[in-house]
């Protein structure tokens, strides 16, 4: 055995001999100190009333000699220290500011008390008030009063603020006003938690344009913020120093010397930033994932090598207890309104900073993850965020919910173009209608000499083109039934719909290549991956691993064209009761041009009216708003060819259409169904040929 191996064995043996007792958490230690201070305060209080026995009388006599009438400040100081221990922040250094603050306050109070009582503040009070002989009573009292205030400021750790008169035009208060103009200007929010976050901001100004959606400026009563929970919870990460030492010692045992550069506690995980020595390959560190998980007794651990923008490697360890990131807390940040009219909350990153993004910059979003990982909650947080910032005249939704129960709370909102779509066939019609609306909008932009809605609206501020957001709660169900048609529609919208203000938000719990195809991924670059079962699923969503190591419950990885690597975020949480409160408020306080199956016909949307006909048209036909496109889309041209083929051949069969039109069996069978619905051919009757109702001369 070589000297080096002996040395390593000795080092490993010594490491094994080190005690590995679980250290007490900082909060536990603070609780113990708080109880000790409370006990001392109670005993000293009882001693002042001669209720603490002989020892209490001795203690009272001693402190009475030192402080005199100021004896009451001593137990009061212990109570103040106990309160600060109980109300502490986890990362706050308590000893310095608290003791300095209490000490200055007690000494200044003793000096004032000695001056006012004529020398009844004991030995210490008399010594402090000796300054009265030099400065006089008034000046000495002012000095002691200022010192006492300084002590209070240090104890509370709060700066002094002078209230000043605020002019409405200079400093708007953060409240939700009634929006009288249709343009989605920045709605002031309530003053919330002040934190720095540069995030993803897109400034957006939407105005109106004639010819596409003629809408009048109607007031919009946005829901108040107090409908959402705004509590700020604190995570518990245990003893950070002990965990850091375990990480350092474990890596050192494998011959990888590192230094701990930083420790940051996030809502779900704690990130330890390590600085490896020069010449250490990052692949050696990432290969020790399971070894670190074993040493820390935590699973799963995610290693980010390197941290974007920093010369460190991040080791993300799950917290002992996670903190819920409430949507109500996030929307109280000023950055929420700064993110633009189409901005929404994503959550908080591993450093605890809020993350906001804008769907106009994406311009489409794909959300995927295993069952129960938080996809539907994220959809709700996106929808509620947009509802807080946009009136029905500036934003329209089309909601597709094959599960029938997830998005039903939004039925009746004035933002909906049509009731929530629950049928797969009707969902296909929605995509076809969206393509038609996109083409129609491009014609209007061409006539107006603009390249997108934003520049077009600047030229025509009198009217506005509303954004349209199409939300699909479960894409796998649609892909299973209408795979190629749905994929083609999604790809075309993803490629071209950005400039026309039409955006897609797709969600699926089956991250397979049959659902998230290569064409869909190539055209939707902004993706969210929640917890998945395997590394293969993670690569299907993000083209990289990592999602299989997430913790669930809203823990996600977000990637977009602006990010070089996936960003870990704890998603915003909103309860079912909060969703109902917000939607009920909007329905009750805003007049809705409610769109129902009985009221709307889509016949006029094939003309120049576009979305205007959908929102304002009323026809006698009781067909659904999207039914017109159930039969007229990409089958239109082939349908005419199929009718001509059947008319000339005077017979109708799938094999005939396959040969003449060069299509597959499924397409040919669908064309037969369409012709049967139009009463061009008769129904199938076993092996007998179908009856043809049109002659060659027709």
From TrEMBL:
Keywords noted in UniProt: ATP-binding, DNA-binding, Membrane, Nucleotide-binding, Transmembrane, Transmembrane helix
Highest taxon of source: Bacteria
Q: Where is the composition biased (Basic residues)?
A: 1-10
One Pfam family it belongs to: FtsK_alpha
Q: Which residues bind ATP?
A: 369-376
Which CDD domains is this protein grouped with? Answer: TrwB_TraG_TraD_VirD4
Which Gene3D superfamilies does the entry link to?
3.30.980.40, P-loop containing nucleotide triphosphate hydrolases, Winged helix-like DNA-binding domain superfamily/Winged helix DNA-binding domain
UniProt-listed SUPFAM superfamilies: P-loop containing nucleoside triphosphate hydrolases, Winged helix' DNA-binding domain
Question: Which residues are in the FtsK domain?
Answer: 352-539
Segments of this protein annotated with the region Disordered = 1-23
Task: From the record, give the transmembrane residue ranges.
Answer: 32-54, 66-87, 94-113, 133-156, 365-388
One GO MF term on file is:
DNA binding
| InterPro entries noted in UniProt | AAA+_ATPase, FtsK/SpoIIIE/SftA, FtsK_alpha, FtsK_dom, Ftsk_gamma, P-loop_NTPase, WH-like_DNA-bd_sf, WH_DNA-bd_sf
Q: Which family does it belong to?
A: Belongs to the FtsK/SpoIIIE/SftA family.
Q: What is this protein called?
A: FtsK domain-containing protein
Originating organism = Candidatus Wolfebacteria bacterium RIFCSPHIGHO2_01_FULL_48_22
What's the source species' lineage?
Bacteria, Candidatus Wolfeibacteriota
